[in-house]
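dumping this here before i forget
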Amino acid sequence: MLEVRATDDLDIDIVSLTLRQADVEELKATGTENPRDALVAGMEMSDGGCYTITMNELPIAICGTAPVELIPSFASIWMLGTEDIDACPTSFLRLCRKELLPDLISPYEMVFNVMDKRNSLHVRFVSWLGFTFIREKPFGPYGLPFYEFALINNRRSHV
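structure:
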């Protein structure tokens, strides 16, 4: 059974120790070596919009939205997960698209981020959620290929 709740420090400890290898590699490509540091920073920047997805009360993913300081109607959206997502892929996808994504984007006109092009699972996931890929560009200290992606909140946007 999957549930969503506010993230706490124990969730960060558990997820950071069991992060999917593709997520670890993506963090390294951005110059972040320690998954726990990335999760702590994500939670702090998400300003109350940080959520943990649990399966049978075990944290399997953490996600959030971090508002852009100069454009508060825009936010960076992010997620890091564990291999345990593979035990319930269909339920996880449905939960993310029907419940979690609408809650995450509701305060914003647009959410966006960048992702490692090599992370093919994330590329398919983000596309399936309805995001638009804007462009490919070198990113991070190693200049690896990343995609910029975004989603306009049609319920809120005045565009």
